[in-house]
Amino acid sequence: MFNILIAEDERDIRHMMSEYLSNNGYNIFEAADGEAALDVLDETYIDLLITDIMMPKMNGYHLTKVLREAGYELPILMITAKETIDDKENGYRSGTDDYMVKPIVLRELLLRVNALLKRVKTTSEKKITLRTSAFDLDSFTAVVNGKSVEIPKKEFMLLFCLLSRPGKIFTRQQLLDEIWGYDTESGEGTVNVHISRLRERLRGCTDFEIVTVKGLGIKAVLK
Q1: Distance from C-alpha of 173 to C-alpha of 217, rounded to nearest angstrom
Q2: Angle at 96 between CA 116 and CA 91, to 5 degrees
Q3: Least CB-packed of 77, 117, 196, 200 within 10 Å?
């Protein structure tokens, strides 16, 4: 399920969009201003951001610019009462991917969200790009902190699985089934060994870390 963050200071509008998108299968997070949106992004992997322009503390232009300068590549849909060409130009220059003008038609909002996320899934399902790291599942190539790193195939697939859903906790059995297959004779200790080797190879990584959640499993956490 895709995670969508809605940054909108008008509570009724925010809740209206949130409820509609939630009813259409999306996992929704809310923020009342740009600074609150950054707090959510620090703690949670977000697939798409919907942001108003006129917000207290940090407006949508500034929020979008900050995210792009920090290396965030998630699609951004800007929503505002402003509808002049200059306003739209400012939005696109700050780094937004799409633009909607209030009053919002919820059906159109859903169509635009679907289109943006479909584009992301098509182009990124076999590639993961972070601030200073990149992973290509087709070629099994890895760049960490800007430097090429050799990672054996099983470890690479394990890492790619974790990074594909940052923040999601995978049980060791889930990882075994995903990477080694359902009929493998390997046990959960195999996952532990590969995770240990990955941590050693990725020591000093500034983009993410692999975290063991006691009693639950393993997850990748973006920094």
Answers
A1: 9
A2: 140
A3: 200
